[in-house]
């Protein structure tokens, strides 16, 4: 990539960790020495003990327009940042969580990573988001997944799934999880979905705990639309979650549609994308290491 002229950098992170607060202040000082304007997430800034950090508080719209947003925490911090600031968003993730699949660097590496980005020594991994439509109206977006789930614990729901007009499932289960390639390392893989290579652009469908044991996960093209409906025999509708956040509880007459959005998140990568991805997967998901 060409050198990225950093004029403005947004910073957000967890407010409950002292090491995050310390790194935020260090980043502010480091970047200001290079004449880079730093905007700190207002909620984080106003809770920070440093007056200098508090003075750098920025609003959500300004941070979304920043040349890059540095997130300090874990994958959950990135998901919350996307929901808070909106997309499109350009992200450099600093991992202080337990997994960090979406994050690029550990805290000691963040300063050298920003220097590499300024020199153009980086790649962009574009992750398209999911759009959720309920009865024809766009209700929400998700970076990882949309989960159509039973609204009553221990009670299955009866539903049907069509993909581009072709029925792929009809029956009873706990629900259906529609995931992006980026989201394949999250809830989907814990539900026995496949690991999807980070270079692919596709949709994944996992039927959660179906009564029919022969049902397997599906992979669909990036142009597909996944449609969930409830047949007349259904006793209830469903709760719909986007990246773990409840968006709506729908009735059994509702129609749920999920497809890839025009919105996206650009992850800045200073390491080789594929080898780093599979090494993280092996260490975290197979060996069970906590970062």
Task: Please give a structural write-up.
- By secondary structure, the protein is of the alpha/beta class.
- It has eight helices and 17 strands.
- The chain has helices spanning 18-32, 42-46, 51-55, 60-64, 75-85, 110-119, 187-190, 273-286, and strands at residues 8-13, 37-41, 57-58, 68-73, 89-95, 123-134, 137-142, 145-149, 157-163, 166-173, 175-180, 202-208, 218-221, 225-229, 238-242, 245-250, 256-269.
- The strands form two sheets. Strands 1, 2, 3, 4, 5, 6, 7, 9, 10, 14 and 17 form an eleven-stranded mixed β-sheet that branches.
- Strand 4 (68-73), helix 5 and strand 5 form a beta-alpha-beta unit.
- The longest helix is centred in the N-terminal third of the chain and has 15 residues, at 18-32.
Distance between the ends: 29 Å
What share of residues are in beta strands?
35-45%
Structural class: alpha/beta
Specify the CATH architecture of the largest domain.
3-Layer(aba) Sandwich
Number of helices, where a helix is a run of at least 4 consecutive DSSP H or I residues: 8
- How many DSSP-defined strands? 17
- Give the % helix: 10-25%
Main sheet: strands, sense, barrel: 11 strands, mixed
Stretches with pLDDT under 50, minimum 5 residues: none
The overall average pLDDT, rounded, is 94
- H/E element sequence: EHEHHEHEHEHEEEEEEHEEEEEEH
User: What is the radius of gyration?
Assistant: 20 Å
Q: What's the CATH topology name of the largest domain?
A: Rossmann fold
Number of domains: 2
Q: What would CATH call the homologous superfamily of the largest domain? A: Probable inorganic polyphosphate/atp-NAD kinase, domain 1
Broad shape: elongated
């Amino acid at each position: 990539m060409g050198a990225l002229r950093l004029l403005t950098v947004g910073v957000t992170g967890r407010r409950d960790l002292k090491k995050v607060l310390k790194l935020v202040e260090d980043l502010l000082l480091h970047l200001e020495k290079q004449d880079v304007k730093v905007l700190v997430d207002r909620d984080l800034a106003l809770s920070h003990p440093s007056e200098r950090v508090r003075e750098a508080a920025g609003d959500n719209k300004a941070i979304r327009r920043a040349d890059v947003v540095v997130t300090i925490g874990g994958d959950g911090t990135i998901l919350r940042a996307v929901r808070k600031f909106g997309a499109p968003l350009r992200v450099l993730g600093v991992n202080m969580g337990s997994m960090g699949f979406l994050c690029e660097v550990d805290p000691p590496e963040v300063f050298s990573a920003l220097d590499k980005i300024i020199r153009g020594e980086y790649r962009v991994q574009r992750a398209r988001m999911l759009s959720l439509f309920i009865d024809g109206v766009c209700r929400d977006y998700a970076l990882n997944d949309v989960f159509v789930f039973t609204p009553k614990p221990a009670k299955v729901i009866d539903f049907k799934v069509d993909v581009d007009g072709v029925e792929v499932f009809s029956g009873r289960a706990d629900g259906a999880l529609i995931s992006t390639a980026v989201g394949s390392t999250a809830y989907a893989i814990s539900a026995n979905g496949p690991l999807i290579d980070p270079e692919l652009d596709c949709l994944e469908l996992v039927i959660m705990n179906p009564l029919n044991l022969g049902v397997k996960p599906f992979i669909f093209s990036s142009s597909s639309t996944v449609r969930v409906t409830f047949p007349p025999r259904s006793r209830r509708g469903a709760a719909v979650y986007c990246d773990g956040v409840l968006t709506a509880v729908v009735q059994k007459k509702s129609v749920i549609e999920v497809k890839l959005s025009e919105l996206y998140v650009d992850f800045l990568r200073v390491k080789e994308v594929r080898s780093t991805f599979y090494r993280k997967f092996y260490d975290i998901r197979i060996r069970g290491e906590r970062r």
